[in-house]
Amino acid sequence: MTTDTSKTEIEKQDSMSTPSTPTLAPHQDAPTGHKADEGRVGGGLFDPKQLLSSLPDAFRKLDPRVMVKSPVMFVVLVGSVLTTVFSFKDPTDWFGWTISAWLWLTVIFANLAEAVAEGRGKAQADTLRKAKTDTVARRLLADATTEEKVPGTALTIGDLVVCEAGDIIPGDGDVVEGVASVDESAITGESAPVIRESGGDRCAVTGGTKVLSDRIVIKITTKPGETFIDRMINLVEGAARQKTPNEIALNILLASLTVVFLLAVATLPPFANYAHSHLGMVVLVALLVCLIPTTIGALLSAIGIAGMDRLVQRNVLAMSGRAVEAAGDVSTLLLDKTGTITLGNRQAAEFVPVHGTTQAEVADAAQLSSLADETPEGRSVVVLAKEKYGLRERHQGELTHAEWIAFTAQTRMSGVDVDGRKVRKGAAGSVITWVREQGGTVAEDADTVADRISEAGGTPLLVAVHDERGARVLGVIHLKDVVKEGMRERFEELRRMGIKTVMITGDNPLTAKAIAEEAGVDDFLAEATPEDKMALIKREQAGGKLVAMTGDGTNDAPALAQADVGVAMNTGTSAAKEAGNMVDLDSNPTKLIEIVEIGKQLLITRGALTTFSIANDVAKYFAIIPALFAAVYPGLDRLNIMRLSSPDSAILSAVIFNALIIIALVPLSLKGVRYRPMSADKMLRRNLGLYGIGGLIAPFIGIKLIDLLISLIPGIG
Amino acid sequence: MGPVLADVLFVTALIGVLTLVHRPLGDYMAAVFQSTKHLRAERWIYRSVGADPDAEMRWPAYLRGVLFFSAVSVLFLYLLQRVQDKLPLSLGFKPISPDQAFNTAASFVSNTNWQSYSGEVAMSHVTQTMGLAVQNFVSAAVGIAVAVALVRGFARSRTGELGNFWADLVRCVIRILIPLSVVAAVVLIACGAIQNFGDIHHITTLTGQRQAISPGAVASQEAIKDIGTNGGGYFNANSAHPFENPNGFTNWLEIFLLLVIPFSLPRTFGKMVGSVKQGYAIVAAMGIIWFAGVLAVTWLEYAHPGTAAQLAGGAMEGKEQRFGEGNSSLFAVSTTMTSTGSVDAFHDSFSGLSGGVLLLGMMLGEIAPGGTGSGLYGMLIMAIIAVFIAGLMVGRTPEYLGKKIGAREMKLAACYILVTPSLVLIGAALAMALGKGQSSMTNVGAHGFSEVLYAYTSASNNNGSAFAGFGANTEYHNTMLGLCMLLGRFLPMVFVLALAGSLAEQKPIPVTAGTLRTEKPLFTGLLVGAILIITGLTFFPALALGPLAEGLA
């Protein structure tokens, strides 16, 4: 064990074994209470009761100044007003009144969809507001010892405030002195307290959270009103909601389709007059509303809000809708090895005996010597010995007269002296030195085995013993990074979706390569520095790719800002949180994959409903055109392939279908279409069949059914 | 050999030869537009007009070139018609009236070649050859140049440069249109088309009546009329006239000529964007719509009900006995779907529903396969719309050929698809509301309305064919149709070039498994569906009151 690389490796392993301050387990799964229903990005909950409770908001949104933002629905609103006015001119015309009523319902249903989507955010915002109760800050004066009490809102950037157990932290900032456990459940929903300490990457505290123990001094980093919790409230309420680039583009398409159909309808009277068919305003408006893409026009903003909401439900805050859209486009994922791809710690995988010893001997000695090692690595040795070699776990108390040598970062060894037998296990360098000190020799193949393990990306620990036969190395423990279960399949899925995964690690290239191969990532960046990361992102972006990454440290901030989707961990520094465009409150880097899927699901939902909406028009024509003109050109009745009972009923059925389909699709627009990772080809085929062909056929059935119902009403059929 | 079998062989031979020719021709055109060398003749032209053929143009400069050149062309053609009596070889014809001269100038410069005049009794030799025939070449070349600029927009990255308009225009004429026309003209002459500058022959027919037989450089103009998808006939009867279209073979040849460049340009496109498969997807969409139209019209004409039609084996009224049912239908669909507008049978005489198919062919925006150049850029715009919707359904913001379809691109594409439907519908509606349509009809009822609708559809989409009954030579229609032609031609070009500029500035997005595959049959199917639904449905109400009302009666 003389090569430099293996030495650094071992030192790394050792430093990692050093028990560190326990914080909120950074890689745990989403906290309970935020459980996703079936499917990874299955979607949010939808409760029909929400429709009722959002009704007042839906009416409030009838304000033309609000409506004009959605050109399609604005046209419907104008149409509703027109038909109502014309109905007043002819109050006995039940047809005009009925059409007017359904047109108003169409507008209200559209508003309702948006109101329901927003309503879910509002509930969340209320919870957050409770956390933002007025706080009194204990500001430190210039002498750094005297305190004054000021309201939290009076703090400015750079102020130092003191918080002790029981205090609510008055604003966002960094801990500059002390260490404390903090209850961040107000933001994360996670009740387990977390540790915040000065220096390092866990110094950021959020206003509105509560200090549970100890005393810290915080340097305020944000102005009141712009704190994290304020931004969260704005985000979930949708107050800061702006149309995303793709939404704008889609709105342009919808507006142009609306104009085209407006022309088609507005130019119809001169044509029809020539044929001696005089069309009334009511039927013209009805025709127009049926043709313009009302379904997607009504649901578009609800889809966007729901997409953001689906992230919030997974405890991810997207600072802009743009970021969510970008997530769908991502083609390169940078994933940190530790915690994302592998479990946090290395684990013993194998006991390799040197010449002249047996595996069982090594296992026994390894177990014995690891009992005093409380690090995860040490415990994993005990577990392996038990699981693979059937060695019952012994307890320190069982062995009398045993002298335990606990693992320390200095000695980098653990072991036990019992019955005149000394057993040691630890970093190769330390164990070799120990054996030599004891006057023993190191078997040659110990070196070979250790090298082989290093080359394979593992970390070798030596097991040695000093007994009646002298001091000698018994064998080697193979420690390796354990790839999380199911990661390989996930990367396989991502590959099929056209997303490249790059593993980022501080390990040397050899280790990195071995883990990369085992996990099935496409590429890896070994011995990665923040500069390397940045360069990689820029390289990918120069090739036209969109890059997503997670990060928590201050030195990640530039890369987070450069990435198209930068997810900052909530445990991270404020610099990191500021730089990224999303914050994961659970600080779970694996979630990056879900974020990408949610982004895709949002776009697919939008596309599916647009396709559905446009495809619907075919059937509506077959309902309305014969109804309008069969009287003057009887031949056109042959287009009435649905055999609708009467012209009035045909037009009414189309209008009613058009209104009801909005309500029927509200749950889909809020939950998002079912999404499973697959290639673009398969996905297109599936969605085109479902929403394209389905959109062609569904209205034929729906309109016919409504017509059947209407024709039962006396005086119409 | 029965007529049906003959028709099948006729179409099969046409598709076969087009399939064979489109590859070398498409590759050749790509090479022409990517070449860095200039021919001596071209250098001479550049020097005489003071253009630098190697200067790259951004989209506004390219557009200025297109508009400047076209404006000068309109002015020149207008003046030529107004003073033709004072020029040599006038044949004694009077100057053309201002409104008709404007209409004709707009018509030939916009590659529409709508004719509100009868060539043999109005236009002098000089007007025909120096004016109309020249525009047949250059208006076609302008269309191709704009299409090439859009293709460059897709092919290039991180630049706003779209090539040089003057170089594209001159090369297209010198290296593509003239050589093809020379060959085609020689073949036409060999088959009996006339080519002279003689005087009008006055003859006495067998029944003792006097008839004036007009001479002219017909074969040369006939060749470019079809190759450049122009359609303006030397004679009023157009390709039904035996001097223009002497026999069954020339009829086949003319259909081939008017289809050959539009069906080859997708190959050029594929070559220039570096993936011929992308070109195949586009050409397949064009071919599917065209072939469906051919099948529909041929079937409808053969199956035309009515005693006379059934006795004749089909609806033969208004059709040349020499060509028969199938060939006339094939010609009709090909000419309406290519923005050519030449005719070898009178579309007015087709059955109601066939007339509807011909109308729809134009209403789709002349994209299957469309005019020279305009067909390709029109189809690419529709591809962008289709990609936008379908792209979302694969879970990415839409992209086509590695370029993002964002708000700006969508705005330009949306403006493009608004132009012609607006012109057609508003034009026809105004004509009907003001009573101008009714007064020019020669038929009553739904068929009469079809004539008006057809005229405005044909002009706005730069087709140029007419439902023969419509009396278009009035001051109102000359002016309005002239405006429709100009706006229908040049407004879309503005949006196409702006779009090309915007695409060329983007950096390319690499293809991954998550990318929508636009070279696959699935996308072709989607494209066809999007075209039929989005464009077709716009006109459904109008069609219902014309051809559908007539055909379903």
UniProtKB/TrEMBL annotation, chain A:
Underlying gene: kdpB
Mode of membrane association: Multi-pass membrane protein
Active site: 336 (4-aspartylphosphate intermediate)
PROSITE patterns noted in UniProt: ATPASE_E1_E2
Name under which the protein is recorded: Potassium-transporting ATPase ATP-binding subunit
A Gene Ontology molecular function term of the record: ATP binding
Binding residue positions for ATP: 373, 377, 407-414, 425
Subcellular location: Cell membrane
Catalytic activity: K(+)(out) + ATP + H2O = K(+)(in) + ADP + phosphate + H(+)
Domain P-type ATPase A: 137-237
Protein keywords: ATP-binding, Cell membrane, Ion transport, Magnesium, Membrane, Metal-binding, Nucleotide-binding, Phosphoprotein, Potassium, Potassium transport, Translocase, Transmembrane, Transmembrane helix, Transport
Biased composition (Basic and acidic residues): 1-14
Residues annotated as binding Mg(2+): 552, 556
Primary residence: membrane
GO cellular component terms given for this protein: plasma membrane
NCBIfam families on file: ATPase_P-type (TIGR01494), kdpB (TIGR01497)
Annotated TM spans: 70-88, 94-113, 248-268, 280-305, 618-636, 651-670, 690-713
Disordered as annotated region, ranges: 1-47
Pfam families: E1-E2_ATPase, Hydrolase
Stated role: Part of the high-affinity ATP-driven potassium transport (or Kdp) system, which catalyzes the hydrolysis of ATP coupled with the electrogenic transport of potassium into the cytoplasm. This subunit is responsible for energy coupling to the transport system and for the release of the potassium ions to the cytoplasm.
Natural source organism: Streptomyces malaysiense
Database matches in InterPro entries: ATPase_P-typ_cyto_dom_N (IPR023299), ATPase_P-typ_P_site (IPR018303), ATPase_P-typ_TM_dom_sf (IPR023298), ATPase_P-typ_transduc_dom_A_sf (IPR008250), ATPase_P-type_domA (IPR059000), HAD-like_sf (IPR036412), HAD_sf (IPR023214), P-type_ATPase_bsu_IA (IPR006391)
Family designation: Belongs to the cation transport ATPase (P-type) (TC 3.A.3) family. Type IA subfamily.
E.C. designation(s): 7.2.2.6
Assembly: The system is composed of three essential subunits: KdpA, KdpB and KdpC.
UniProtKB/TrEMBL annotation, chain B:
Record field: transmembrane: 6-25, 61-80, 133-155, 176-197, 249-268, 280-300, 376-394, 415-434, 480-501, 522-544
Topology class, membrane: Multi-pass membrane protein
Gene Ontology, cellular component aspect: plasma membrane
Keyword rRNA-binding annotated: no
Domain of life: Bacteria
Subcellular location as annotated: Cell membrane
Keywords for the protein's UniProt record, in alphabetical order: Cell membrane, Ion transport, Membrane, Potassium, Potassium transport, Transmembrane, Transmembrane helix, Transport
InterPro entries assigned to the protein according to its UniProt record, in alphabetical order: KdpA
GO function term, MF aspect, one: P-type potassium transmembrane transporter activity
Main localisation: membrane
HAMAP family named among the record's database cross-references: KdpA (MF_00275)
Record text on subunit structure and interactions: The system is composed of three essential subunits: KdpA, KdpB and KdpC.
Function comment: Part of the high-affinity ATP-driven potassium transport (or Kdp) system, which catalyzes the hydrolysis of ATP coupled with the electrogenic transport of potassium into the cytoplasm. This subunit binds the extracellular potassium ions and delivers the ions to the membrane domain of KdpB through an intramembrane tunnel.
Similarity comment: Belongs to the KdpA family.
Name of the featured protein: Potassium-transporting ATPase potassium-binding subunit
